[in-house]
Amino acid sequence: ARGGGFGYVGGCVPVQGGVTLSLMRMNRIKEINFADAVAIVEPGVFTADLKAAVRAQKLFYPPDPASMKDCTIGGNVATNAGGPRCLKYGVTRN
Predict the structure, then answer these.
(1) What is the domain partition of the chain in residue ranges?
(2) pTM for this one?
(3) pLDDT of residue 42
(4) What does CATH list as the number for 1-94?
(5) What angle do CA 51, 55, 60 make, to 5 degrees?
């Protein structure tokens, strides 16, 4: 599967005759639940867009990969993205 296709780590490139499935159109933020601090999003949501949406709800999404304006949540999960804040808060899967 392919989110934004940005991939500093090359995970968006199929190898050995593989198939690429684009998830770019699955880009909706379905729900942000303030009480439970949970966001339900589709894999094509850009990380920067999620960060802005949760910030508007007075919440915080800690992972901050360098490519956050171009990378997607699906890609973050697939590569377990982190960024500098991972030292304090952990990576995407935490």
Answers:
(1) 1-94
(2) 0.81
(3) 97
(4) 3.30.465.10
(5) 70
